[in-house]
Task: inverse folding
């Protein structure tokens, strides 16, 4: 079956966060897609809606089997049933674990630039956000292992939030990189919460490595956050899971999620996840091809029309990290926030300014390319117009 990713869907009448902008503006910022989810998932939701009764829900055995089957088949990770805990979302789970696994004023390490909401989960809960900036050579990013070890060795550092694959730089960490991170965290008694929500959005031919699959050390100290929401555009249904192999750690996480009341599904959360992981694979495979072509178009267009910008190489997510350092310097803007404001005022194109992601993000913009191609071309035209 050929799926449709080209039809433009008007999201403005749906109280959509992404499209809550002025008429004429084009939002390519927050990380959700402008595609309808797989028809197989919609049919499952419609069937549940037709039942008409929406009381308290439980997590079905099929839900457990579905997660186990998907991660074993697609990612080579065998998940025991008891490892899995339902949660309403990856961010609520991370915030809950920050509260449960650390004490006030302790440090939570993040590798910046990184998903900006990690800062919220840390700072809003009275912990310190400890940045271990990734090394950037003007082309791409690498882990600064010397800095990482120094920060992990601080006795006040008790938790690390890993982004795998990494948002916003689109990097898939290698098995060796993950093993080295895990060894350091084990050495310094630091628990790892691995956010793997983008794991199914890798480019065709590229596969990610689950942190817990790398070694016994990684498995024993980690919590893995997983969900169908990014890959199948289901964030509004609040359906996710955490996998915790270590029994003692799992009990703490389970207590935290239940204390915070984020461990119970709504009426559609289980059915949507089951449909995604049992029927959505053909749709996902075509989506990955479409997104890879969108990214190729952006890279080639910017390379040809806007050579002072640099698109950081990416083999995961539908987010592109644009190095605007030369443009910022020549244009006289203080940072990427000023440039983003200029682009939006001049053309209506709304991109994420990179400073909010920490690290060296104040010279970058983040572009979401998960949209029909006509919208993508409109965005590129606006970007060109703003920077001419």
Result:
């Amino acid at each position: 079956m050929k799926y449709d990713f080209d039809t433009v869907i008007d999201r403005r009448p749906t109280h959509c966060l992404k499209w809550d902008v002025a008429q004429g503006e084009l939002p390519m910022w927050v990380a959700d897609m402008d595609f309808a989810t797989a028809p197989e998932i919609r049919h499952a939701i419609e069937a549940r809606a037709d039942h008409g009764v929406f009381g308290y829900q439980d997590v079905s055995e099929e839900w457990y089997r579905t997660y186990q089957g998907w991660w074993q088949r697609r990612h080579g990770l065998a998940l025991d049933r008891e490892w899995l805990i339902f949660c309403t979302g990856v961010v609520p789970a991370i915030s809950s674990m920050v509260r449960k696994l650390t004490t006030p004023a302790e440090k939570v390490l993040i590798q910046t630039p990184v998903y900006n909401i990690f800062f919220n989960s840390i700072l809003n809960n009275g912990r310190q956000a400890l940045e271990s900036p990734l090394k950037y050579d003007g082309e791409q990013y690498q882990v600064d292992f010397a800095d990482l070890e120094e920060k992990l060795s601080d006795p006040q550092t008790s938790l690390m939030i890993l982004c795998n694959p990494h948002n916003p730089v689109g990097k898939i960490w290698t098995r060796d990189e993950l093993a080295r991170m895990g060894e350091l965290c084990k050495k310094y008694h630091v628990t790892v919460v691995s956010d793997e929500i983008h794991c199914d959005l890798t480019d065709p031919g590229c596969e990610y490595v689950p942190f817990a699959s790398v070694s016994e050390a990684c498995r024993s100290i980690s919590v893995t956050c997983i969900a169908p929401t990014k890959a199948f555009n289901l964030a509004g249904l609040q359906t996710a899971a955490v996998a915790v192999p270590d029994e003692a750690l799992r009990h703490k996480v389970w207590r935290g999620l239940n204390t915070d009341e984020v461990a119970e599904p709504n009426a559609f959360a289980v059915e949507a996840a089951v449909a995604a992981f049992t029927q959505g694979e053909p749709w996902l495979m075509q989506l990955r091809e479409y997104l890879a072509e969108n990214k190729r178009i952006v890279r080639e267009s910017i390379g040809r029309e806007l050579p002072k910008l640099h698109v950081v190489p990416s083999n995961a997510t539908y987010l592109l990290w644009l190095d605007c350092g030369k443009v910022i310097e020549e244009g006289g803007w203080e940072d990427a926030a000023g440039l983003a404001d200029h682009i939006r005022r001049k053309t209506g194109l709304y991109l994420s300014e990179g400073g909010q992601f920490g690290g060296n993000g104040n010279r970058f913009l983040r572009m979401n390319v998960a949209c029909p191609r006509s919208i993508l071309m409109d965005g590129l035209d606006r970007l060109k117009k703003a920077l001419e």
Summary: The chain has 14 helices and 15 strands.
